[in-house]
């Protein structure tokens, strides 16, 4: 039930607000204590496989059996309560926490959780993470599952913030619960759990040491083949992605990217071993770079992942995440359309991705170049469609009149983004002219653009400033497809040629050849 | 947490060790003032403070926020000003002093230095509270001019850095001596300043950089070569 981003709106708006306070499933004749045989078999086997550290079987049961059973028996009711199944699994504390985690995840995906259930789920995460942080867990769990935990944790936090911010229509009972349990899904708690997982797991040091060949993590996909547990390490690893996402939801893009820094996204890693994690990482990485005006960096990574999704999506058709994959795919095309409109760099985009992009947004992108009101409308539309679900992390004011503030964070980010677009509105015009000249005098260009010379100078400086981003190390890098310099009153245009990175190409071929020779050596001829 | 503990750590360390701790809010506020008086800057610490304000809006001090924003303007061409705005609630941004700062940022972002200096002169009380403001903006102006021009005429430079006449002569003298600027006579009308060469105003310099291979990449084939 991986869930890198359910849509809040449909689930919540489908149910009338009043149903939040009662248990909606009671009406459907759901008996939390009834355990069908198939569920009994499921928990007994899963428990055994976990004790035997049989990752392969755990993964099968987690990915397939759990889905099948949910589909067959629990389409619109929750799974049996943990108390009802506990005695089948020796009342094992950790297993029960894991079971409840899945129980809530299923509930969030299929029904709409009540406030009480949201709070209970928070408590369950606290207990689960505390057990993991204290190092008592001696299990080996599939990466997919561990990713889903972090992902769901952040999702439920986001969902809670959205829910809490809709203060109108809250019942008195809900308000008193919110006041009473003000620590539930508290932003400090959420951030500190993720941070604690990163620190306690020593994952940053592990990744550092791996670079020097002193440690294996990526090579084993994070699994521990010498009898240890992978749970804390891998949860710590995925928590870095979780932190990136939380910071993006808060509008803190700089800090978000900083949290991801220990993971080298130019290479394959554990984050690419689970499709959901791969997509979440790159989506947020690209979005943060877009907001930091590092368009080339965003374009490069969006291009890579979109190509990857294009090539591999057929293998995920049956996966429960398929819909989410498609949705994020569409959103990233929209973000790519924005990036390329602000910073034309078609050379960076692979042919397949480019033709998909033209098909989806070709016509809109042409209109975006015009920078009139209609164009701003399209920027607004694409941004709103593709941005993360921003949250306001602070608690509501409980004073009357109660107001909704669930849109505040989104509106602010949108406004600031459109402000940036407006600052760049004259650049596409100047770009068009620069493309057709190799040299042109300021006076002549000012004439063509119907502005005076001082204004043209400001446009040209703006062009330079906006196309020269500050990268992670504080270095200035050019994002310009067409560049120029001015010698007093004369503009000299330089069409930037993408220089082929022969060095990298040869390095890769050398490593590849060596691998091939090693393989050949291993073959024994009779 | 005892007082002794706080003394042992610098604020930078506090931010690095425990970035999600509401108890460091006061330290961070003091640190903003320290950055102002000692002419230093830490984006990470300031973002951390804005984040804590975001979590507890009633603790926000508009004076501190205003100082953070002025400092962020001084960090241009880095996008720090926007990074801070992303974290400041819209209703706070509507306040007069912040509106002014947003306008100032807008002028800098769009290369309108004349308007910038005019507006800054009207808002002395905000920007003069932060030492080094003028120099920092001048440095940014010179940065964008160096991206744009090989040779720039004296009046264009004067407008961008807001220095004229004798002071400008002195300034130019200093730049010639220390930063490799060259003064030329323009064709008939006044002075031309040749700005130092970089890969942005002399694109031919760029090629070498793009073709080089970082050392870490080479290390990957060391075992094979050995």
Summarize the structure.
The complex is a heterodimer of chains A (526) and B (226). Chain A is mostly helical.
CA-atom Rg of chain A in angstroms: 26 Å
Looking across the biggest beta sheet of chain B, what order are the strands in? 1-3-2
- Find the count of extended strands of chain A (DSSP E, 2+ residues): 5
Write down the Rg of chain B. Answer: 22 Å
Number of helices of chain A: 22
The percent range for strand residues of chain B is 5-15%
Shape by Cα distribution of chain B: flat
Integer average pLDDT of chain A = 86
User: Please, what is the oligomeric state?
Assistant: heterodimer
Give the helix tally of chain B: 16
Strand order of the largest sheet of chain A: 1-5-4
Largest interface: A-B, 58 and 57 residues
**SSE succession of chain A:** HHHHHHHHHHHHHHHHHHHEHHEEEEH
Q: What portion of residues of chain A belong to β-strands?
A: under 5%
Label this structure with key terms.
heterodimer; A: mainly alpha; three-stranded antiparallel sheet; two-stranded antiparallel ribbon; B: 226 residues; mainly alpha
